[in-house]
């Protein structure tokens, strides 16, 4: 009986320490939440934006953000790859129309206007990353070969 109480007490101390360590921080982190049991809890700051990447066919793909705007400052994007292929999210600050970016010979758009990215994310994975964004118009794109041309793009505004 004494051993059971001691084990329970140690477990409670560990749980209390874990909970106390998770609160109150304003530090942003890059976090990957993997399927299969590996879970890292992000310390997020700023406006949270859910981004879903999906490939609906061999030639049609989507990138959808919700909401599609945020106030100036820290913006935390959570990219969920709901597709069957690897995807990424590049944040381009541009005044160009969403469907008017020039596609190069490599079947990608220029990343010269990039202010950040969530790099290649395997199918079924979720990645969270925080960026500090200035006011302006942005386009979120998957810039893996042919993905932008196949529809993996969405407009995003920071006010």
Structure description:
Helices cover 13% and strands 40% of the residues. The protein has 159 residues and is mostly beta strands. The protein has a five-stranded mixed beta sheet, with no helix packed on it. It has a five-stranded mixed beta sheet with strand order 4-10-9-6-7, with no helix packed on it. The termini are far apart. The relative contact order is 0.22.
List the helices and strands and how they pair.
Blueprint: H1 2-22, E1 31-33, E2 47-55, E3 61-66, E4 69-70, E5 73-81, E6 87-93, E7 114-121, E8 126-133, E9 136-141, E10 153-158
Parallel strand pairs: 2-5, 4-10
Antiparallel strand pairs: 1-8, 2-3, 5-8, 6-7, 6-9, 9-10
Quickly describe the structure:
The chain has 159 residues and is mainly beta. It has one helix at 2-22; strands spanning 31-33, 47-55, 61-66, 69-70, 73-81, 87-93, 114-121, 126-133, 136-141, 153-158.
Q: What's the helix count?
A: 1
Approximately how much beta-strand content do the residues carry? 35-45%
How would you spell out the order of helices and strands?
HEEEEEEEEEE
Number of strands: 10
Q: Write down the overall mean pLDDT.
A: 81
Helix content: 10-25%
Shape: globular
What strand order characterises the main sheet? 1-8-5-2-3
Rg to the nearest angstrom? 20 Å
Distance between the ends? 61 Å
């Amino acid at each position: 009986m004494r051993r059971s109480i001691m084990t329970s007490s140690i477990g409670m101390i560990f749980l209390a320490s874990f909970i106390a360590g998770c609160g109150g921080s304003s530090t942003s982190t890059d976090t990957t939440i993997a399927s299969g049991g590996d879970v890292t809890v992000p310390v997020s700051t700023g406006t949270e934006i859910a981004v879903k990447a999906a490939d609906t066919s061999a030639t049609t793909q989507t990138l959808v953000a919700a909401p599609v705007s945020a106030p100036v400052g820290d913006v935390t994007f959570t990219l969920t790859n709901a597709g069957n292929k690897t995807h990424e999210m590049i944040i381009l600050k541009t005044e160009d129309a969403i469907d008017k970016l020039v596609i190069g010979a490599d079947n990608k758009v220029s990343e010269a206007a990039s202010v950040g990215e969530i790099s290649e994310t395997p199918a079924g994975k979720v990645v969270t990353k925080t960026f500090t964004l200035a006011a302006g118009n942005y386009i979120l794109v998957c810039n893996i070969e042919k993905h932008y041309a196949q529809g993996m793009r969405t407009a995003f505004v920071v006010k």
